[in-house]
Structure formats: C-alpha cells, structure tokens
Amino acid sequence: MSLKSVLTVTTLGAALLVAGGSYAQQPNPMDNVPDKMPNDIPYGAPISLERADAALAAAVAESKRRDWKLNCAVVDSGANLVSFKRMDGAQLGSIQIAEHKARAAAKYRRETKAFENGVQGGALYLLTLDDVIASRGGVPIMEGGKIIGAIGCSGGTGSQDEVVSKAGVAAVK
Amino acid sequence: MKTKPYLTLEDCRKVGAAAMSEARKNNWNVVIAILDDGGHLRWLEAMDGTTPFNSQVAVEKGRSAAVSRRTTKSWEDRIAAGRNAVLNMPVLPVQGGVPIMAEGQCVGAVGVSGVQSHEDEQIANAGIAALGLGK
Q: Please, are residues B127 and B79 in contact by the beta-carbon 8 Å criterion?
C-alpha cells in the first residue's frame, strides 16, 4: 500500500468517525415516548345511509357549484363503503382514490392530510403503513366525540378535493 | 364516427331511487350499485343492515353485466346447463346484475345484492324501468 492510499484511508476513517459522532449527538425524535396516545378517538355506530347520502348530496352540490367533477365516497366506522357518487365527467382513476381516502380517514381516525403533511415533512415511513394514502381529501365524520364514518373525494387537486369533502362533513354535523 | 348514449349521474339517481323504493316496499335490505359501460362504479348505496360482502357482490354483479352486456343470470344459466368453462371467465355468474340498454347499446349496468338472487334482479329491473327505455 502506498503512502498516499494509507493517508486516504486514514482521512476517510476520521471523517466517518466525525460523521458517526455528530449523528449520535442528534436525538431521534422517533425515540420520544409520549404519555398519551395520539388520535385516541373511539369508534361509534356506523353512519346510516340517510346521513351518508346527506353528506354526499352536499359534497356533490358544492363540487357542481364550482364546476368541478369529482368522485365522492362515504364509508362507515368499519371503513366499509356506504355510498358513492361519480359526477358526470369525473376521472376514472379517482373512483378508487375517493374510496381509499375515506377508508384511510376512518381506519386511521384522522384526515388524510396528516399523512400528506408527514410525507411532505420527510416522514417517509408513513408510506410503509398499511392502506395509507398521503393525499388530502379524506375526512372523518364524527358524532358525539366518536367516529361514525368518513368521506373521501378525488378528481381535482388535493385542495379542491378537501374543500368538497369538508362541505360534505359540514352538512351532517 | 359513431356516437352512443351516456348514463348521467342524474340517470343513476333515478335508477337508484326506483330500485331503492322497490327494495323498501318489500322490506329488503340491499346494496345497489350502478356502473358505466366500462364496468366502472358510478353510484352505490348500501342500505342500513347490509354487509361489506353485499357491497362487493353488488359491484361485481354490475361489472359483469356491464362488460358482458348480458344479465348475470344468463351466465348462471350457462353454468347450470353444464357449461363449466364459464366458471373460469371474468364474470360473477350469479343472478342480480342487469345491463342498461339504450338505443340498442349498453350504457351501464345495475348490480344488487342482499336478498335472494331473483329478488336482487327484480330490484335491478325496477330501477332500470324508471328510465323508460323499453326493452
């Protein structure tokens, strides 16, 4: 081994040590153990078809008013599809996405925007969780502090989908 | 270029409402699914008391009828007649899926699940009748 390569190896080793040292000094936020559980929301009785339809009627009306063509879905507290409407001219790819957003919102008891924010912030492990969709537009439907279902809309931008979903939720509050 | 009729959401609402009232009249709890001519879901309502199984089956019956342009009963009958190879085809061969024909062309289908198969089909037919398309 030449002197030059020995020097290179030594320098590289030192650099790795420094890097390792600085890594160890930064605490991993994932190691934090909070006292309380996040999103500790109980599941309630499944939403009735009547209310699911009231939510979707409001969502579709809001979407129509803005001349958006969306797919809108409502699932119950067991994440099962209860009602679905595809507006005239809405894209086919969003049939599954609308239901997926609603399902994920019910299963994880939070807006799908939480996943979008997390992934945007670099928490890529979220994408390895089962049945997650990291796109806003899935919103839980609550009653008396319990989750009774969720609505999901898809077909526009995430922000458009979310506006329509929230119009649906507002109608059955 | 050829043109063909298109099933609107308003049409789906009519079909769904008529099918729903047929089910309610008989005290039947069912899932009603309406699909377009490509077998893509357009409209679905699951009445209270139905199961997730019913939703899946209603969609699958509707999809089968839409893409094959035949009732799912016709597929069921073929198997009953001994044509076992049909079991390997991409359809659900159980009565309760009915295509919607307009001007001689298939514009979609209705799939129903929740009660006995012939009753499911009765509901689907009642729904389609609301469009006044004739046979």
A: no
Chain A residues near any Cβ of chain B (below 8 Å)? 48-49, 53, 60, 78, 80-88, 92, 95
Q: Is the ipTM of this complex over 0.90?
A: yes
Task: Give B69-125 as a DSSP string.
Answer: TS-HHHHHHHHHTT-GGGGGSSS--SS-EEEEEETTEEEEEEEEESS-HHHHHHHHH
> CB of B118 within 8 A of CB of B14?
no
What is the three-class DSSP state of B131? coil
User: Which two three-digit tokens encode residue A107?
Assistant: 């299963």
Is the CB of B38 less than 8 angstroms away from the CB of A92?
A: yes
User: How far off is chain A from B9, nearest CA to CA, in Å?
Assistant: 6
Nearest to A86 among B9, B46, B55 (CB): B9
Of residues A80, A88, A92, nearest to B52 (C-beta): A80
What pLDDT, in 10s, does the model give residues B2-55?
Answer: 899 999 999 999 999 999 999 999 999 999 999 999 999 999 999 999 999 999
Amino acid in position B40 = H
Q: What is the mean pLDDT, run by run of 10 residues, along chain A of 173 residues?
A: 51 49 74 94 97 98 98 98 98 98 98 98 96 98 97 98 98 93
Q: Which residues of A93-113 are buried (b: 16+ CB within 10 A; e: fewer)?
A: ebbbbbbbbbbbbbbbbbbbb
